[in-house]
Amino acid sequence: MVRCLELARQGAGAVSPNPMVGSVIVCDGEVVGEGYHEAFGGPHAEVNAIASVGDGAVLRRSTLYVNLEPCSHHGKTPPCADLIVEKGIRRVVIGCGDPNPQVAGRGVAKLRSAGVEVLEGVLEAESKRLNEAFMTSHAEGRPFVALKLAETLDGRIATADGQSKWITGDAARLEVHRLRCSYDAVLSGAATIRADGSRLTVRHCAGRNPLRVVLDPSLSLSPDAPVFGDEAKTLLFASQSMEGSPSALRYAAIGVEMVFVEEGTGGLDLRAVLDELHRRQVLSVLVESGGRLSASLARERLLDKLYMFIAPKLFGGDALASFAPLGVSSPDEAPAFRFEPPRLVGEDVLLEAYTVR
Ligand code: AOF
Ligand code: ZN
């Protein structure tokens, strides 16, 4: 199963909105075949693994390992559960169930009713974690939302003068670009984009550019801003009241796609933004923004994960905090997180934390 997960990861950045899946075939204690889901719309992991074993007699004596329940539906490809039965594979070992309502247990049921021995839940937590975006998208009906912060030891993202370049070092910057590749979308607000001259593209490593999502309620950014450059697609969210305005027409003229949503108290209605991204099959969003948007996401309990790059520096209490006021009066009201083991990235520390709900 460890090898399945390793294989599955090779599909990162190429399979969304489908899950990352790897499969290994074992006969008499030896790996005789393997495969993974390589591209969206392409053959599933199980199909590739089975195809890699030429000999039908070997398959009939083998166990198939896969990190996600085999599918039972006719999608862009025929059901993998049927293929497994047809090939006479006797035993299947599964990492975790498939939350896709078209599958959701039916894959396992199909296998069992055909007499295949099925073992479920092997490295289940690791399997769910690998596809956390796919899982959240099905379970919550919205994208998985991660917030990236580059801050000082005292939780500051800019000096009192508003300077934020550069808090963390080169290694952290490279790591952020790697993160961008693995997310379907990168989201930021107009003020941060203006202050940083952000492009929100992947430049320090090889990989595809995610969709850029810009929140600019009053369409204040210039259409010439680097974030609208044509090296990646940008989706611009603005307030409903801007629809048909002269500024909106200027963006339309340069081919930037706009979505108009209602405005709440602290800016655009974030649930409406996430709803729209979900409709567009965006499974995961990496937010790289300022303290106001970070606080709104935390307040509305929309954060699934934090990536905090912490620089060994102090800016002090007059500098800009990573979160605007949250209105937490007692510790038990605070949004709470669970740390992953910390990791040194160059001279900085990367703390990953998951929301505890
Ligand atoms: C994959 N790759 O290796 C497995 C998947 O539209 P389709 O036919 O490609 O089906 C997509 C669904 O199939 C997907 O949402 C998931 O529920 C299931 N399993 N998908 O893309 C794979 N095993
Ligand atoms: Zn399948």
TrEMBL record:
The free-text note explaining how the cofactor binds reads:
Binds 1 zinc ion.
GO molecular function (one): 5-amino-6-(5-phosphoribosylamino)uracil reductase activity
Q: Which domain of life is it from?
A: Bacteria
InterPro entries noted in UniProt: APOBEC/CMP_deaminase_Zn-bd, CMP_dCMP_dom, Cytidine_deaminase-like, DHFR-like_dom_sf, Eubact_RibD, RibD_C, RibDG_C, Riboflavin_Biosynth_HTPR
Name the chemical reaction catalysed here.
Answer: 5-amino-6-(5-phospho-D-ribitylamino)uracil + NADP(+) = 5-amino-6-(5-phospho-D-ribosylamino)uracil + NADPH + H(+); 2,5-diamino-6-hydroxy-4-(5-phosphoribosylamino)-pyrimidine + H2O + H(+) = 5-amino-6-(5-phospho-D-ribosylamino)uracil + NH4(+)
Q: Which cofactor does it need?
A: Zn(2+)
SUPFAM superfamilies for the chain = Cytidine deaminase-like (SSF53927), Dihydrofolate reductase-like (SSF53597)
Output the CDD domains linked to this UniProt entry. Answer: Riboflavin_deaminase-reductase
Record EC number: 3.5.4.26, 1.1.1.193
User: CMP/dCMP-type deaminase domain location, by residue?
Assistant: 1-119
- This protein's UniProt keywords: Hydrolase, Metal-binding, Multifunctional enzyme, NADP, Oxidoreductase, Riboflavin biosynthesis, Zinc
User: Pfam families, from UniProt?
Assistant: dCMP_cyt_deam_1, RibD_C
Has UniProt tagged this entry with the keyword Zinc?
yes
Q: Which pathway does the database say it acts in? A: Cofactor biosynthesis; riboflavin biosynthesis; 5-amino-6-(D-ribitylamino)uracil from GTP: step 2/4; Cofactor biosynthesis; riboflavin biosynthesis; 5-amino-6-(D-ribitylamino)uracil from GTP: step 3/4
Identify the NCBIfam families for this entry.
Answer: eubact_ribD (TIGR00326), ribD_Cterm (TIGR00227)
Protein function: Converts 2,5-diamino-6-(ribosylamino)-4(3h)-pyrimidinone 5'-phosphate into 5-amino-6-(ribosylamino)-2,4(1h,3h)-pyrimidinedione 5'-phosphate.
What family, per the record?
In the C-terminal section; belongs to the HTP reductase family. In the N-terminal section; belongs to the cytidine and deoxycytidylate deaminase family.
Question: What is the protein name given in its UniProt record?
Answer: Riboflavin biosynthesis protein RibD
- Source organism: Chlorobium phaeovibrioides
